[in-house]
Amino acid sequence: MGFNTGVTDWRGLTVWLVGASTGIGRATASALHARGAKVVVSARNQAALDAFVAQHPGAIALRLDASNPAAVAAAASSLIAQHGLDRVMYCAGHYAEQRATAYNLAEMVKHQQVNYLGALYLLDAVLPHLLARAKTRADGLGHISLVSSVAGFSGLPKSLAYGPTKAALINLAETLYMDLQDAGVGVSVINPGFVETPLTAQNDFKMPALLTPEQAASAILQGWADGDFDIHFPKRFTRWLKFMRLLPYRLYFPLTRKFTGL
User: Fold this and answer.
1) What total number of domains does the chain contain?
2) Residue 134 maps to a domain
3) Strand residues in the chain grouped as ranges (E)
4) Which domain holds residue 31?
5) Which of 30, 118, 175, 210 is most open to solvent, judged by the fewest CB atoms within 10 Å of its CB?
6) Contact criterion met (CB below 8 Å) for 115 and 165
7) Tell me, what CATH number does 78's domain have?
């Protein structure tokens, strides 16, 4: 049994994906559109959003800078008034590798603004609606998904700026689930391994078990169908990382150095 109400029939459901101009967000939006959902895509890149709508008739483009709380509030208010809202997925992300020996405060802050604070702004904008929805529609399909990363499982080299924001999202999702499960709003956290996106294109090392965005989207939809809380993939990779975070530090630190070469 899943933690949330599973969904396989997306017809009639309005799904808002914030951070959907490329990568996992775009591929997931495309997969949802193919299954009959009313898809709303948001990002800063208007041209990419317009291209998505042109390729997916009936989809809605809503340009948005997720790090701007007033813009997020205005977009949510407009969307809910015009189309309603059943499910939301926060997949906006920023990544630049960083080590403490080359500490960059501006990058640390930018990661926080996009990866974490943007999720808080979105929650502030949609939670009242989703809670009210649950009181009038007891279908259990109101849902919040936060896209984190396996980089949030535990500390990793070169992830000084990125990793802590993803760890925060995991903790946030866990707490949201406990607070909202009895209120009729589902919650899931999505923890991908390596996926071919503009973010991972920056990496200069071999990425194990690398997936396409379409494979990632398929895993996400399967997780939603199963009602999973923790949607992680590919499991042949993520299960090893989950195991490693259970190790004592005297083992974790040397093993991480060995596997990463850093």
Assistant:
1) 1
2) yes
3) 14-18, 38-42, 60-61, 87-90, 143-147, 186-192, 230-233
4) 14-260
5) 175
6) yes
7) 3.40.50.720
The amino acid sitting at 162 is Y
The answer to whether position 184 is within a domain reads yes
| Domain contains 8 | no
CA dist., res. 113 & res. 130, Å (int): 24
Asked if 147 and 136 count as a contact pair (C-beta separation under 8 A), the reply is no
Cβ neighbours around 209 below 10 Å, total: 14
Tokens 């903790």 label which residue?
A: 171
Per-residue pLDDT reduced to its tens digit, 27-45: 999 999 999 999 999 999 9
Exposed e or buried b for every residue in 106-123, given b needs 16+ CB within 10 A?
ebbebbbbbbbbbbebbb
4 within some domain: no
